[in-house]
Design brief:
With about 250 residues, the protein is of the alpha/beta class. The protein has one domain: NAD(P)-binding Rossmann-like Domain (Rossmann fold, 3-Layer(aba) Sandwich). It has 8 helices and 7 strands, in the order E-H-E-H-E-H-E-H-E-H-E-H-H-H-E. Strand 4, helix 4 and strand 5 form a beta-alpha-beta unit. The two termini are about 35 Å apart.
């Protein structure tokens, strides 16, 4: 029960890594806001994982939507202790000059602008409480980029730098900010990372991971729980690799 008495928000919480984080947080005693742009999926996930999960619909790339979401969650829970900025998208593997402007804008809006918007709405609340933990989901792509995922890689590099900048600025207020850097996992984005989901492509992708497997939602849940718990009270500005050795 490492998160007993805590209230957490997990964006992109209706699928993939987000579900793994939601499940782990609930097991460890937290109340969890399952936040997703797909409200029906968020509701289904919340109903499946337990009574301490509540579904919210939010577009984390839209300022008005995030503002409304912040008001709803603070009203519902009273205090927000943990924010996991997990929502993310990618473009298909493509030469950098061929990525469409629309795809570029979408990747930057969901992967980077969302962290700014969530910070704008929730950091004042956490400062007032003189406590809080923010966890941003980056990627090994932000540390060791793969070809043809150029602008996705760049967006996750931004997340890592933003995490460190936030950590330095918010430490005097009692807030910690860290990041997780997973390798690709068994999530809806896997096919987009690989371009095509075939046995041959999986074998090629896995050959770059020393432990020989993808990240799982459970891996992410366990790592997120540690960084958001009091056990990690001396850790801030960390970009933890959850990658089976891919970045070595």
């Amino acid at each position: 029960m490492r998160l007993a008495g805590k209230t957490a928000i997990v964006t992109g919480g209706a699928s993939g890594f987000g579900v793994g984080i939601v499940r782990k947080f609930l097991v460890e005693g937290a109340r969890v806001a399952v936040a997703d742009i797909n409200g029906d999926a968020a509701g289904k996930t919340a109903a499946e994982v337990g009574e301490n999960a509540t579904a919210f619909t939010v577009n984390v790339a839209d300022g008005e939507s995030v503002k409304r979401f912040a008001s709803e969650t603070i009203s519902a829970f009273g205090k927000i202790d943990i924010i996991v900025n997990n929502a993310g998208v990618t473009h298909l593997p493509t030469p950098l000059e061929d990525v469409t402007e629309a795809d570029f804008d979408r990747v930057l809006a969901v992967n980077t602008k969302s962290i700014y918007l969530m910070g704008r709405e929730f950091v004042p609340h956490m400062k007032q409480n003189k406590a809080g933990t923010i966890l941003n989901v980056a990627s090994t792509g932000g540390l060791s980029p793969r070809p043809h995922l150029n602008w996705y890689n760049a967006s996750k590099g931004w997340v890592i730098t933003a995490t460190k900048a936030m950590a330095v600025e918010l430490a005097p207020f009692g807030l910690r900010v860290n990041a997780l850097c997973p390798v690709a996992g068994e999530t809806p984005l896997l096919k987009s990372f690989m371009g095509e989901d075939t046995p041959e492509m999986r074998t090629k992708f896995l050959s770059t991971i020393p432990l020989g497997r993808f990240s799982t939602p459970e891996d992410m849940g366990n790592s997120a729980c540690f960084l958001c718990s009091d056990e990690a009270s001396m850790l801030t500005g960390v970009a933890m690799e959850v990658d089976g050795g891919r970045c070595i």
